[in-house]
Fold each of these.
Amino acid sequence: MPMEILGNEFDIMELIKEAEKGDSSAVEALTMARALSDELSSNADFEKLLHKYYKRMAARGDGNALLYIAQDYERGKTVPQNIHKAIEYCELAVGRGKRTGYEFIAEMYMNGKSLPVNYKKAYKYLMKSLYFKGERGSLTSDIGYYLLAELYFFGLYVNKDLELAKEYYSEVVAMGFDYGESYYWCSNYRIGQIYEQLGDDVNAEKYKNRGMEFYNWEDDLDSVAIEDLLTRYP
């Protein structure tokens, strides 16, 4: 029976049948359903099922699947945490043209959860993505732009540059937001902090309030707790 999640209809059992046959579009639909549903995202068996499907796709050289498996190994929820495998799969994804793999490695060095914090290495991997194959392009993810903005906001390894930080945070904002926590909210809040430092109180309030929108419905969170959630780095 189809289930409706935030206005989207998914026939989970039918999608699983198609995924078992190797249909990558069915796997992607299941992933979207998981992202929109608290019930599915908290279901360990469903997570293991997705891991199986993506592992199969990764074996065929699918770049997005390689990134998915990399994140599974980095987080250590569906499979035992293995940072070496996480980096290996990120680099395999890069080999398939998915330079987001570099940005995921940069995040590992920034957040300190799986690797010791190393801002120099984080910057190095962000630059490898930005100058992929020797030509300056653009970063591919909200994660990448947010991390680079954070480096310039705090002056971590690079010289502090609020204008450059605002430019990169704005790239994240331009990408929009999903239905859950995302760098969109954090970037809006950071832009507000930049305007605050520049003495522009009107824009400071505007962007900080926009950043706090996602958490305002949480009755058990005060403004201090929300600010802590929105300023996760360094």
Amino acid sequence: MKTLMTALLTTVAMTTASTGLATESYPTQPIRLIVPFGAGGGTDGLARAIQLSINNNNLLPEPIVVANAPGAGGAVGTRQLLASDPDGYTILQIHQEMFAASAIERVDYTPKDFEPIIQVSEACMFVAVKEDSPYTSLDEMISDINENPADFRQADDIGGATHFPSVQLMNAAGVQWPIVPVGATSARFTSLQGGFTQMALLSPLWLERAAGKIRPLAVLGNERYDFAPDLPTAEEQGYDVTACLNRRYWAPAGTPQEHIDVLADTIEAAANSEEVQKYLAETGEVLKIVRGEELSDLVGKEYASFVEVAETVKGSLSN
């Protein structure tokens, strides 16, 4: 396995180098990788794992330098990217939070302002209830909400990336329920544990972290988790809803395609390295490489799904 991985890294490094010669030896200076959140979070962790793999394996002739730019739910760092020259020397890593804010017009940028470089990983959320909850399936939960709507509340991050699939789940179920604005994943878990809310969407890491304290009802992905094969998807239970945080790399619109290709090749090689694979396994994420036209199409579909429920989400913000 190590021999195969070494061969892959060497091959891609050589390919990247030759591509660089074809683009006037790009890069000729360090590349700034903006992480629009604080140090220590999931976005920062993956960015630094990718950075170390690229730099330690000499996949580029110049280093990647991570720069944290937190604030406004990722908007501060994202705007820094858009203010930079489209030359491939400033890139961004973020998940769908950037376009969740765009869909509800919290920010003035849209996918058209960016060049997608590559998607590296996927972490599909799951529907969680407390371990002693009476619900053992989505159908049981939805049925009880229909009968006792006043007794059910969901913990969520109002206006955040998980709020959109929450609205989509309500639409698929044909019933609405109150959402309590508690914030990020750890706060949602705390609210659930304290009995203040009856359901929350959590990331896959919490299946292990909160084992014995929560009961998962459904994966909001297209497939079951490899590490939890008995947990069905929402779609299997009759609810066509997906909610996956996909960590992607971006450049400003107008960045030369040759530079995008060099970056995508390099990041893909790093993502396949043992150190990044180990990081993904530890955080409950899975390697999910998507690039090129396929990635552009995927971004367009996701953004359209956000816009479709944006008015409902904005209504929650005004309440």
Amino acid sequence: MNEDHLGAQVLERLKIAYGVKNDQQLSKAIGRAPSTIHNWSKNGNIPTSECIEAAKTTGVSLDWLLLGEGVAPGADKDSLAQQKDPHFYRGLSDPNIASIPMYDVECAAGSGRDFTEEKVLGYFHMDRAVLAELKLPDSGVWVRARGDSMDGTIDDGDYVFVDFNQRDPSREGVYLILMDGERRLKRMQRVAGGGWLLISDNPRYDKELIAPDKKQFVEVLGRCLVNLGQVL
């Protein structure tokens, strides 16, 4: 394996360590100019001092950061064997593979749950051609739902793909919203007069009407496009 390829892997592991998705976000996270990150990506030469600082700042293993050995952030010991597989890092260096972050956010599908910090649980490596076929943007994220209010559509523990580019609920669908400091998954309908109707697919939950003058208190974060759940 050539040094440029190794450098590309280190750069991608830096992004994972800082919980970012691209070079621009990494430059902001570490306080380096975008041109510096571009040069690292181009020549595959990432200063060891940057890796040491990243290990100190984020708490990741320096062995993992430099060599890919050990347990990755958010992974358990059982995943160590998988990470030693030479195919494991394909998604980190192959431009045809998109690494979609999976958030360990208890994105409430019930009464809602407030949170102040998102933790990246891992990454779902997907072929960009498959993403295009499914009409999923590579800028989306997977979030894990909690609660039972969306039972029948989204069950407790399911992973839902959220497209943050689709924030206009004029088209009925299931959306991730921020309301009263809580993030929730709700079906949204536009009603006469310009208000919104928040619907729980579980009939045991009442519908919520958001009047036009109250819409400012509801932030639509993104539209839910795909649900990954257990088949029974």
